[in-house]
Amino acid sequence: MEKFIVNGQRKISGKISAQGSKNGALPILSACVLTNSKVVLHNCPRLSDVYAAIKILEKLGCKALWQEDTLIVDSSGVNNYSIPDDLMREMRSSIVFLGALIGRMGLAEFSAPGGCEIGLRPIDLHVKVMEALGVNIANDNGRITASVKDGLKSCNFVFQFPSVGATENAILAACVSKGTTVLENCAREPEISDLADFLNSCGARIKGAGEGTIVIEGVEGLHGTEYSIIPDRIVASTLLSAATITGGEIEITNIVPSHMRPIIPVFLEMGCKVSVGESWISLKSKDVLNRLKHIVTMPYPGFPTDAQAPIMAVTTIANGTSLFTENIFECRFKHVPELIRFGANIKVEGRMAVVEGVNRLHPATVSAPDLRGGAALIIAALAADGTSEITGITHIDRGYEKIESVLTSIGADVRRK
Ligand code: EPZ
Questions:
Q1: Which of 110, 180, 233, 273 is the most buried (most CB within 10 A)?
Q2: 10-residue averages of pLDDT along the chain (417 residues)
Q3: Mutation test of ligand 1: which of 47, 56, 121 has the most ligand atoms closer than 8 Å to its C-beta?
Q4: Where does 4-19+231-416 sit in CATH, by number?
Q5: Which CATH class is domain 22-228?
Q6: By three-state DSSP, how is residue 26 classified?
């Protein structure tokens, strides 16, 4: 089992380019199923979740080829609508293939994604909007079959909750349905706009993505395109956290500054100096960090739940008490017991976590509980006064591309063993 060995107390200092967005790439890879020819995807991150999505594409009859960080997908040969259980288990967000498969084949078969480390992850909102679009969904002991008899129909639908994945599935199915669909109370994450921009470049007619209401005029079918995936705002936030906890400084290039708007005020509150340019962000930390009064995770443009764990790790050595409320996932504090092994002082009460800053963290041997919780452990290990070990790093590889070489290239000492 691979692990990270981290020698702490080294200041992060340097310039790094942000990787392509995992949560942008996954729905766009699914959207390739809707196209009838070649798609050239630039800035596609090399992550285990992306490799899992490519395995699903190949299972469905697509061809995929890497050229550096460009991925070429040819979906002209799509001839299957069933996703095998092992691939669904490998990546639960494969549920986002539902809308594209239904749009292309009129059929989709897959196992219920089931829960994961951070929560139960139900799919009721996906089912509701699919049914509104005319899809019949049957669940036979966890094996789900979706079908449309006489084609997808447009609808007016209001989401009870702005679910990212359910919004993505609705867009994927509606863009090749008959008529005009109006979706309200949609998720507004930048990855939604990225998916809509990709689909529009393939000939779809989607308006309002990134806002609460999205209007989609269905078209016959979609053609290929050449597209560049947006940068990963959560990886950028994690790198800012690394510079902050080590009292260092960093410049991150190839980002979309507006995507960082919900996160920047948090670093300012901790006392960092932050400047933002056309496509870069720079941060200079300070020796003693201010605590964070209250971080509340919310749907975009609120503070992102995916940035909660790495930022909490930073506050373990801030001056004072920081408060976190996790509103999005019911089980997203699994990094807390592992942070306590570094000497952090954190108490969890339901959806709230109270962090009392300590003077310093000591090295520890810890295990990554999930993707962002694992990133939080790296952040803590960077500040610990000695050598720490982090196991369970397959979680981290799902969303961070070569994180050990990225951090080492800007002054840290992180080795994969
Ligand atoms: C996406 O997950 C992201 N994953 C998550 O990132 C991110 O944390 C989340 O959006 C919120 O921003 C991908 O894009 C692949 P949701 P998703 O549907 O689509 C409940 C990471 O670390 N819900 O907006 O699954 C759900 O249980 C990952 O990169 C229902 O109740 O998020 C959760 O409590 C983690 N019924 C809340 O809504 C449903 O049908 C938000 O889920 C669907 C969701």
A1: 233
A2: 97 98 98 97 97 97 95 97 92 93 97 85 96 96 92 96 98 97 98 98 98 97 97 98 98 98 98 98 97 98 98 98 98 98 98 98 98 98 98 97 98 98
A3: 121
A4: 3.65.10.10
A5: alpha beta
A6: helix
Residue nearest atom 21 of ligand 1, based on CA coordinates: 306
> Which atom of ligand 1 is least distant from the CA of 118?
35
Dist CA 140 CA 155 (whole Å)? 26
Report pTM.
0.98
Burial of 124 (0-12, 13-18, 19+ CB in 10 A): exposed
> For residues 226 and 142, what is the distance between their CA atoms, to the nearest angstrom?
37
pLDDT of residue 371: 97
Cβ–ligand 1 contact at 303 (below 6 Å) = no
Nearest CA to ligand 1 atom 7: 306
> What stretch of H or E contains 209?
none
Q: Is 202 a catalytic residue?
A: no
Point out the catalytic residue in the list 116, 186, 202, 331: 116
Q: Decide: helix, strand or coil at residue 381.
A: helix
- Among 275, 307, 269, residue whose Cα is nearest residue 289: 269
pLDDT score for 317: 98
What is the pLDDT, as a whole number, of residue 149? 86
Does 371 sit in the ligand 1 pocket, CB within 6 Å? yes
Q: Is 337 exposed, middle or buried (0-12, 13-18, 19+ CB in 10 A)?
A: middle
Q: Where are the domains of the chain?
A: 4-19+231-416, 22-228
